[in-house]
Amino acid sequence: MTGAGAVGVDVGGSKVVAVLVDDSGVVGDRANRVTPERTTRPRVVEDVIVEAVRALVSRHDVQAVGVGAAGFVDRSQQRVMFAPHLSWRDEPLAGRLSQRLGHPVLVDNDANAALWAEHRFGAARRAGNAVMITLGTGIGGALLVDGAIYRGLNGMAGEFGHMQVVPGGRPCECGGTGCWEQYCSGKALARFAREAGSELAGPDLTNAAQAGDPVASGAFDEVGRWLGVGVGNVIAALDPELVVIGGGVSAAGELLLDPARSSLSETLVGRRFREMPALVAAELGPLAGAIGAADLARRAATGAR
Amino acid sequence: MTGAGAVGVDVGGSKVVAVLVDDSGVVGDRANRVTPERTTRPRVVEDVIVEAVRALVSRHDVQAVGVGAAGFVDRSQQRVMFAPHLSWRDEPLAGRLSQRLGHPVLVDNDANAALWAEHRFGAARRAGNAVMITLGTGIGGALLVDGAIYRGLNGMAGEFGHMQVVPGGRPCECGGTGCWEQYCSGKALARFAREAGSELAGPDLTNAAQAGDPVASGAFDEVGRWLGVGVGNVIAALDPELVVIGGGVSAAGELLLDPARSSLSETLVGRRFREMPALVAAELGPLAGAIGAADLARRAATGAR
Question: Cα A175 vs. chain centroid, distance in angstroms?
């Protein structure tokens, strides 16, 4: 045994990352595995998670295990109702993993877990009411209300990416049209760049924009403008203290936040009568989801709120 | 003295209505006054409120006074920051009224007050997490979280009507464009009817639609469809147990809710994986705001939560 803490697992589209997290949010160790194809049986994905967690359990004193996944997780934090890049459908993941690992296990939506981590240890430390928007391939979202993650009736609160921003707009994987994530996400960024003649995507696009490439910068401008529109909608509804922007695309920092703040300051309802909430980049980087899942699991297991 | 309770005042665009409300939400007496023109000095509006309240105070044992107004009220429920149809700008209304009336006074946004009334005595009695949309000239909105009105940083949470649903769409009084209330409100309803050749508006339009007039029904269909779109956005963000539709336009009932439910069931994210929240008409009618304001004031004055 070289350390103690909770294990947080981030189940992403390409990687399964397990980390050991102490109660100050510090990551002590990690184990990576490759995510099985989305066509793989649920049990195989489970095997990969168990393997990654066991690697850490064999080396440390583990109290509890939290799993963050991009998908709909029920409000009891036990079942994954649907995960777009995995084969889970109404999967009792927490129960199964708990049985196999012999530890208490909790599952959460990855954006909920990331916001919890930012609230405990990062950009939302001082906020009781905050919103998180994670810009990856799509949009993830989460709400903090009075210092707790707000889950809603089905555990599906915070699906901001599927608010319609363009009537009859681009078809979305969710079955709707004109969803915000079709205009404001890594996928949208690459599309805007492609439409302007660039072949770049992901971090390459960020690097090019930071180096001053006009096509790449233009794509960030466009996504940033849509970020402002959608954040304006979220603020109109929720009037939070703070909006935290995370996910891979947020690595572009001000390239993205500048146009967002500018479109927000032009359109937000009641802007002359309100204190504007801060719009800031996440602080914890790509491990936020795993750190938050670990902390949520530790608190649930130890009875902390 | 013929009764006891709290007084609730609804300050509308045309009428100031004060009611005496007992702790079961029953209205025992009322006093109506005409709302002064929006150009009138704030003090004159205050005089009218004081007059209406005094009419009730002279006849009953009054514990506290609550005022509901269409506008931005600060989160301490003391000041009206802005009211579109009145001259108040950062007006310390609660303090002034309290001084003149000699009773504790609290101010709230009218949709917050209406949702509170529906939660205590009406359609949201059994819900802890609910959303209210009031369709009047514009859209009012409010959120109930864990059995309490959620106010946000500035007391401006629930301004759903100013979420953008059409990029570059119709200009809105708020300074934005394409706001939801431009497509889903009494004003939008009359416009849709006018564009289809009808001169009717307000209750006349509702009556015509209920009598089967195709132009009037078409206008309700259109507004109902936009209601579904916007409610879908609110549900994606908040996943509430219940959505209550109130305000004058909601008198049309199923004429409005039917098309809304149908557009909602076609587009709501994760509809195959979620329990759909009920979409229902408010139960308390036009006095909901005054009843809720009275109950909020009574509870604040007596220390009830």
Answer: 21
- Per-residue pLDDT, averaged over B281-286, amounts to 96
Whole-number pLDDT of residue B305: 57
pLDDT-derived band at A84 (thresholds 50, 70, 90) equals confident
| Between B145 and A88, the higher pLDDT residue | B145
Cβ neighbors of B114 (< 8 A, separation 6 or more) are B68, B132, B134, B140, B142, B246, B282, B284, B288, B289, B292
User: Which strand ranges, in their side-by-side order, compose the sheet holding A72-73?
Assistant: A72-73, A80-82, A89-91
The token pair at A229 is 């529109």
CATH number of the domain within which B132 lies: 3.30.420.40
Note which residues in 158-177 of chain A have CB less than 8 A from chain B: 158-160, 162-167, 174-177
Per the CB < 8 A criterion, the answer to whether B180 and B162 are in contact is yes
Mean pLDDT, chain A, whole residue set? 94
Residue B51 shares a structural domain with residue B100: yes
Question: Quick check: A278 contacting B, CB < 8 Å?
Answer: no
User: Does residue A305 have a pLDDT over 60?
Assistant: no
CB contact burial B150-174 (16+ within 10 A = b; e otherwise):
bbbbbbbbbbbbbbbbbbebeebeb
Mark yes or no for CB contact A72/B156 under 8 Å.
no
CA distance A258 to A128: 25
**B111 and chain A: CB distance < 8 Å anywhere?**
no
- Strand, coil or helix: what is A160? helix
Residues 8-37 of chain B with CB under 8 A from chain A are none
- Spatial neighbors of A139 by CB under 8 A, at least 6 apart, are A133, A160, A161, A180, A181, A184, A185, A230
Q: Is residue B119 part of a domain?
A: no
- Single out the residue of B116, B4, B106 nearest to residue B65, CA to CA: B106
Decide if B240 and A165 are in contact by the 8 Å CB cutoff.
Answer: no
Q: Domain count for chain A, please give it.
A: 2
CB atoms within 10 A of CB B77: 23
Q: Give the number of A-B residue pairs with CB atoms closer than 8 Å.
A: 163
In the chain, the amino acid numbered A281 is A
**Residue span of the structural domain in which B194 resides:** 126-282
Query: Of all residues in chain A, what percent carry a pLDDT higher than 70?
Result: 99
| Strand locations in A179-296 (E) | 242-246, 278-281
B238 close to A (CB below 8 A): yes
A291: confidence class by pLDDT, cuts 50, 70, 90:
very high
- Residues 177-206 on B with a CB inside 8 Å of A are 177, 179
Same domain, A165 and A295: no
- Number of other CB atoms surrounding residue A86 within 10 Å: 24
pTM exceeds 0.90 for this model:
yes
Q: Looking at residue B83, what is its pLDDT?
A: 86
| CB within 8 Å: A152 and B176 | no
